[in-house]
Design a protein that fits this description.
The chain has 299 residues and is an alpha/beta fold. It has helices at 20-33, 36-39, 53-59, 61-65, 97-100, 142-148, 167-172, 175-186, 194-201, 242-254, 265-298; strands at 9-14, 42-48, 69-74, 107-111, 115-117, 134-138, 158-166, 206-208, 225-227. The protein folds into two domains: 9-231, Spore Coat Polysaccharide Biosynthesis Protein SpsA, Chain A (Alpha-Beta Complex); 264-298. The longest helix is centred in the last third of the chain and has 34 residues, at 265-298. It starts with 8 loop residues before the first strand and ends with a helix.
Length: 299
């Protein structure tokens, strides 16, 4: 087991104005998940638009109150990269991670704003990444993405919503410059912005994490991190994924005046009807199973 950065655990989250209203809750969950003993050794860096820096510093004061160090910094110029229909060029700011941290920092854990961190993940910093440039979990659409990017069948396509970065190697190998070169070569193939570029650039040099560290909608077991990685986010009222409903319930407990986006009375009525119908179906199922169980037991 290798020695980490003098036991300072560095985390990174990036948000533009489109996600600013959600990042506070994401960070709240991050703080709540962390064991008290790890907080004094933890530093969270938030990169955002320059006009949001002061506002987020105030909104995130609870991070400092919890014992975690907080650094809110403005995003640097990012004109080398173009946004996409569903993503702005903010999606490429992770490649500048080395600029956000001191030279002695060797590892950083990045997480998306649409991640719900439920358990302390400090132990990820103890992983020996060896010659691997990053660690993440395999994307559930990996076969489609590998074909699109001309990756081999044996290559991995990793989802970087929860991303352990080997920052020492990034510096040593000038990954920031290599990333730009790779981006210019494959930009016509891109669908998922920097995630695509990372997967082409890092081929053969991924450390795979267990899916519990980036549970996407297709899996159903108790996770450490839930990543709502599709276009339908848990703060959208129409999202009916089971983990989205848990997210909404929990967020409404934490933020007393918060409502999901797009909620209206007609949808609430429809949801009530659907919940009642599902309840009736569940009751009928339970009654039927109980009846047959009793018949079988008494026969």
């Amino acid at each position: 087991m290798e020695i980490v950065d003098k036991h300072i655990y560095n985390y990174l989250v990036i948000c533009d104005k489109n996600l600013a209203s959600h990042v506070v809750f994401t960070v709240h969950c991050f703080v709540a998940s962390m064991n008290n003993g790890n907080r004094s050794n933890t530093r969270l860096t938030v990169v955002t638009e320059v006009e949001l820096v002061d506002k987020l510093k105030v909104q995130l004061e609870f991070v400092v109150d919890s014992g975690i160090s907080l650094n809110v910094v403005p995003a640097r110029n990012n004109d080398n990269y173009e946004g996409m229909a569903h993503l702005t060029n903010f999606a490429y700011l992770r490649i500048y991670t080395a600029e956000y941290f001191d030279a002695h920092v060797r590892k950083v854990v990045y997480f998306d704003v649409d991640c719900w961190i439920k358990q302390d993940i400090t132990h990820l910093f103890e992983l020996d990444l060896g010659n691997n440039l990053g660690a993440g979990t395999i994307e559930f659409t990996s076969q489609e993405d590998k074909k699109r990017l001309d990756l081999e069948e044996t290559d991995f396509y990793v989802n970087t919503g929860l991303f352990l970065i080997n920052l020492q190697l990034w510096r040593d190998e000038n990954i920031q410059m290599k990333f730009l070169t790779c981006y210019n070569e494959i930009r016509h193939k891109l669908k998922w912005a920097d995630q695509d570029v990372f997967n082409v650039l890092f081929r053969g040099r991924w450390f795979l994490l267990d899916p519990q560290y980036n549970l996407m909608r297709q899996y159903q077991y108790v996770p450490s991190v839930i990543h709502f990685n599709t276009g339908s986010k848990p703060w959208h009222f129409r999202d009916e994924n089971i983990w989205s409903r848990k997210y909404v319930n929990f967020r409404m407990e934490v933020e007393k005046d918060w409502l999901p986006e797009g909620v209206n009375f007609s949808q609430l009525i429809q949801m009530g009807i659907r919940v009642w119908r599902d309840f009736v179906v569940d009751v009928r199922f339970c009654v039927k199973c109980s009846y047959r169980y009793l018949l079988k037991k008494n026969s």
